[in-house]
Sequence to fold (525 residues):
Amino acid sequence: MGKGKKIKLIVFLAVVVLAVLLVGRANSVVKEKVENYLSSSLPETVKLKYSNLDLDLWKGAATLEGIELEKVHEISKAPLMKVCLDSLSINDIGYWAYLFNDNIDIGNIQLVRPQLTYFKLQNPDSVKEVQEEPKVFNYRLNLGRLDISKAGIEIVNTETDSILLHVSDLDFGLDKVFVDETVLRQKIPVDYEGYQMAFDSLFYTIGPFENMAVGPSKLSHQDMAFENVRIFSKYSKYELSKHIPVERDFADVVFESVTLKDYKLSVGDSGRVSFSSPKMEILNPQVDFFRDKLVADDPKIKPLYNEMLRDLDFDLTIDSLQIKNASVAYSERVKRDNHGGKITFSNLNADIANVSNTYEAPIKTEIEVEANFMEHAPLKVHWNFDVNDPDGTFIFQAELDKLKVHDVNKFSEPNLRIKFEGEIEQLYFTIWGNTNVSQVDMRAKYEDFQIIALKKDGSTPNKLLSGLLNTLVAKDSDRLPDHFREGHKEGIERNKTKSVFNYVWINAKDGLLKTMVNHKRKHKT
Fold:
């Protein structure tokens, strides 16, 4: 090797050694400054512990391990938040962009097993925390990717020491994040290209009487898929009655899955949230409701569905909602000496178009339902309404076939002390109504219809009352030319303290009375 080459090699090696020494020294200096900052410059309300800090300025990387962070209330010193995580890693830090362009460029940030506990104070006014002036953010943050793995989130009610929210095994990713002073003033103070989220389970306290649980689920900026969704009462059917001042449904509702496709979520300049999806699907819902009528009536006004949609405090647009293979049971207890009666709908499938408060007339919400009533009788329903109509105008049409009337006894015997016999071969009715009043047209083809009134013991027939009732009701419809009896009733007033389905029921009941009770009537030819 020539003398010149040896000198160049020595110089190169010296530069490399010097660079390594300088970087090593810089690592030590920067690490010391970071440690001093973390130990002395954090607010008094924040306590931080960690097991190790590792810096690599050459690679632009930093890792903090064994982290425990706690924030307490400034006045009361009550705990507000606690975070524990295995590690926090920041990689591919761009020094050049920071030094010369006021940019903070970071390749990715990774949080491994963060466990967040938030303590919700019940009387925040009594321990009001001093609000700091917002600081000016004079930089532009560009983050390639944020990754959070195996996280846990818990919100605790400090007054009752109960769990308000619990999420386990949460994975979350955010792509191409951008933040600057302008973005921070937005309702959502971060811009990003996409996100992915998955969790193993979620528990949420809806209110004083109901909880919600969700199984393994996945979300992204395009689709949502939730599994094993359950909304259920905190108390048993009869225990609930001891905790409520007025009637309230006991509920146990389970969805095998809930999916939404190509959804969009946004926040307008006014702060109003908009949510839309071309398709929502609910698979295999199992619905069980029970109402104890021995509890006092709830005097609150119950809005119709068009009003409920119209008055949402956000914009909702679901083009198509499909409910597949549902099972619905509704039980009601009227008398104290029994557990009440039940009606059921099985194999229920529904197609609902335009579940929205953003469509303009003449577009209407259209509901198509097919089910088996009381297990055996095929039922079809068509229902429509205009969400923009302040009068709440709607049309409800139903067709019921091959109903063995004794199936209804599961509801009528314990609640009304009445049994029925016979068969309704075909039943059609149409309700035209609005928020105040309605009318019904009904056609029924039936045979061998009998009413058996029961005595107070709920099992012994009351022959005198049964005979009287059966003289008022036509036994069958065979004597008419087309074998159908028809009924029409107008001026059916809605009880606004009752549900939408009570409105449908009183129309169906009045239609049946007009159709089946013996009286002179005109028949179509």
Summary: Residues 3-40 form the longest helix (38 residues). Residues 31-123+138-181+192-205 form one domain. The first strand starts at residue 46 and ends at 49. Residues 8-23, 521-525 have pLDDT under 50 and may be disordered.
